[in-house]
Amino acid sequence: MSDPVSFVLDIRFPDQAPQRVSVSGKLVIGSSEKSDVSIEEYGLSPMHLSFRVHNSVLSLHNLGGKNETHLGEQLLNHGKMYILNIGDELKLGDIEIIIRAEADSHEVSDEYKNLFENNDQVVSEESANEATEEISNINVEDIEEDLEEEVEAELKSDKAPVEKKFDFSNYSSEELSDEEDFEEEFDEDAEGEKSNFLTKVTSLFKIKQKKSNPRELKFDKANVKRTYSPAPGIFTRFFSFISKVCISISLVMEVFPLFEIDALLAPHFNKITKLLETIPYGHYLTNNLMQIVLVFIVLELLFSLLLGMGLPELLFGVRNEKSFLLSRVQAVLRTLISIVTTPLIIFDLPSIVKKRTLKEVLTGSRLSVPSKSLQIVGIFLFFPLFLLTPIVTPIILNLDSFKTINITEQRPIKIKKDHKIKRIWPSSSMKAKFSGKWDKRITILPTIKPFKKKVIPGVDFYQMEKKLKWLKVQYFTDFNILKSIKDNRDVNPMFAIHYPDLLENLNSKKSRDFSPAAFDQLKKVILNSLNLNFNDPLHLFINHGPFFKDLSALKSQLMGQLQVQPKSKISYYSTPKKFLLFSEYRSSKYYKIQVMVLNLKGQAIIYKSNSELKHANFAKKQVSNLFQNYKILKNTDTANSWDWSKTLDLLKTISETKKDITDLEIASVYDFFFENSLKVMNEGKELDKRKELLEKYSIYLVSIQTYLESLTEFTTLPKVSELVDSLNRLNQALKNKNLDFFSINP
Predict the structure, then answer these.
(1) Where is the FHA domain (predicted)?
(2) pLDDT bracket for residue 516 (50, 70, 90)
C-alpha cells in the first residue's frame, strides 16, 4: 500500500510573503478568531473555508456566503462540498491558495521571496546586470515546449473528469454533526461582516497553468443517518392541553349562550345524558362537559387543517419538519387517533423523555422544538393568557356586572318609649307575619287593587302631626333566588370549597330550613355578588375564587328584581333568621324603596314602597321598621281582631274564591273602615288639617270600592254589593263633613 498523501496549502498574499500550512484532519480558514488560520482584512468571511482530509482525499466545504470563492474559473456555491486535487487553485478575496502535496513543500527561494517583499533598499547596478545576464541566457523556446507538454498531459487526464462519490458511511455521526455546527457558526458570524477594500498588487511573475474544473461533492443519501431535533417534552404537551381545555370552556360557557348555540345543542345532549346515566359514574357526564369535549375535538381538527398542529403548540415553539400538505394530513390523523388513545395515558409516556408518542409514530409525524428560547418565551407569554381565558371572558362579556355599588348595613330602628306599642299582624296576602314594636301614632290601612288577572295587596301608612305623611307598601313578587344560584354553581369549580354547607342544602331533595352555617353562606354569596367590582379583586378572590360568572349572573338578577338605578342606594339588614336588601331611589317627585326579604326556608319575597319625596325620611323609617319585624308566616298564625291584616286577607280571598261574604264579615269590615274614618275626622279637627287628610282618605275609600265593584261585575255577590253601598255612604259623609252621621253610627 502507498503511503497516505499529505496536503499543504500554499497561501499567496498580495502584500506579504507566501505562507504554507499543512492540512491533517480538519482546518478552517477565515477572518474570525475561531478559525484555525485567522486572516484579517483580505475580504474573507469570519469562517470562510473548511478543509478536511479523510482517506487521502482532500475535501472543501465552502462557507464564504456573500464573499465569493473561485476554484479555477468557476464560482463555488455556498454550503456545497467539493473534492480538491493537487495543483487546484482557489481564489478567495485578495488571497490565492494553491493545493500542493507534502513532497512539494520546499521553501521558496530567496530571490522569489524578494519579489513579494516591500524592500526599501536600492538595487545596485551590478546586481541588476547579473539578473539581466541570467534572463538573457534562458532559452524561451525550451520553456514554451516544456509548458506545451505539461498542458497536453493535463488535458489528457482532464478530458473525462470523474465525479467522485463520497461515501459518508466512513464518517462518524460526530464528524458529520461537527460539520453542520461549523456551517451554523459560519452563517451566524458572517452576517453583518463587511470586507475592507484593498488595492490589489499584481505579481511580477506568474506561471500560467490550466485551471481545473471544480468537482461538486455527491454522496449516497442512503448511507447518511439524519439526526432530528428532540420531540416536545411532557410539560409543553401538558401546557398545550390545558390551554385548549381553557379555550373550549370559554366558548361553551360564554360564547355559546351569547349566540344561543347552547339552546340548540341542549335537546340533543339531554337525550345522550339520559342514556349515559345507566352506566357507572354516568351522572358526571353533564351537558356542559360533553359540549366542552365536542368543542375540544372540533378545535383540534380545525387547527390541524389550518396550522398542522394545535394553536397552543404553535405559539409554544413546536414545529413540524414535514411538508405543508403532509404535516396537515398527519395532524388530522393524530387528532383522530388521540380520541381513542387519550384516556390511556401510557401512550403519551414517551414524551417524558422527549420521544415521539404512539400517534406520532403511527402517522410518521416529526414534531420538534428547534428553538428553546422561542419555546420559553411562548410558554411564559401565552400560557397565562390561555389559562385566564375562562376567567377573563365572562368579565369582558359582562362588564356591566362589575360596576361598583356602595352597600351599607342598616341599624335596628328605635322607637321612643312614649310612642311604643307591641303588635302582631299575620297576613297571608303579604306572605309575612309582622311582629314587634310599633309607633302608635302611625295608622295602617289595607290596600288592594286589580292588576291584569291578579290583585296586588298592600298597606298604606299615614301619620298626622304637623303635616300629613303618607306611604304605600305593596307585595310585588316572589324571587326564586335558589334556582339562580343552582343554575350557575356548576360554572364555578370552587363553589364547593367556599360554600360547602350551602351546596349541601342546595343538593338536598327534601325541603328543609337552612342551617345557620348554610344561611350565612347564602348571605355571603349575595353580598359577594353585589360587591363584584374591580376595586378589591384580592378580597373577592379569597372569598369566592377566580370564577365570577355565577356572581355576575346573580348580581344581574338582583339588580333587576330590586330595580336598581344608577343613583340607587343599596343597604342590607341581617339577623340569624332573615336577610333584607333595600334599594332606595329618589326621583324629582317620589321616593321609592324596593325590598327583598330572604328567610331561613330560602324564600325571597320582593316588596316595593312609594311616597312623595318630601316624606322620604318618614317612608324610610317605616319601611325599615316594618321589615325588620318580619317573620315567617305559619299556617296556624291568625289575627285575633279585625285589624288591617285580617281585612286585607278577606278582601283578597273574595277575588280568589269568587264567593260571597257573610253578614258577620260585612259588619266587621265596615266597622274597621268606620273607625278609621272617625279617626280621620277627629285628627283633622284637632290639627286644622282636615281638608288634606279627608281628601287623601276619601281617595283611599274609593279605591276599595272600585276593587269590590270589579268583583261583582261578572259575578252576583249580594253581600259584597251591600258592603260597597255601605262604604259609599261612609265616603259621602266624609266628603260632606257630616258629623251627625258619625255620631249616630256606633
Answers:
(1) 27-76
(2) very high
Residue 617 is placed in which grid cell? 325620611
What is the SS3 assignment for 689-719? CHHHHHHHHHHHHHHHHHHHHHHCCCCCCHH
- The conformation of residue 510, written as its DSSP 8-state character, comes to S
What is the spatial distance between Cα 447 and Cα 699, in angstroms, rounded to a whole number? Answer: 11
Hey, what domains does the chain have and what are their CATH numbers?
7-125+152-223 (2.60.200.20), 239-397 (no CATH), 404-635 (no CATH), 658-746 (no CATH)
Neighbours of 41 (CB within 10 A): 11
Strands (E), 576-641: 578-586, 590-599, 604-612, 630-631
Sheet holding 407-409, edge to edge: 407-409, 569-575, 578-586, 590-599, 604-612, 468-479, 454-464, 443-451
For residue 315, the Cα-to-chain-centroid distance in whole angstroms is 15
Alpha helix stretches (DSSP H) within 14-169: 110-116, 125-136, 140-158
CA nearest neighbour of 383 among 300, 296, 299, 315: 315
Pairing assessment for the beta strands 367-368 and 420-427 based on DSSP bridges: unpaired
- Grouping H, G, I as helix, E, B as strand and the rest as coil, residue 463 is strand
* Helix or strand (DSSP H, E) at 359: helix 358-363
CA–CA distance, 194 with 209 (Å, rounded to integer) = 32
User: For residues 47 and 179, is the Cβ–Cβ distance under 8 A?
Assistant: no
Grid coordinates standing for 91? 481564489
365-383 pLDDT per residue, tens: 989 888 889 999 999 999 9
Give the separation between CA 298 and CA 363, rounded to whole angstroms: 20
Range name among 150-159, 223-232, 311-320, 537-546 with the lowest pLDDT average: 150-159
pTM of the model: 0.62
3-state SS record for 507-552: HCCCCCCCCHHHHHHHHHHHHHHHCCCCCCHHHHHHHHCCCCHHHH
Question: What is the reported pLDDT for 647?
Answer: 94
Closest C-alpha among 35, 24, 86 to residue 64:
35
- The 10s digit of each residue's pLDDT in 497-506 is 899 999 999 8
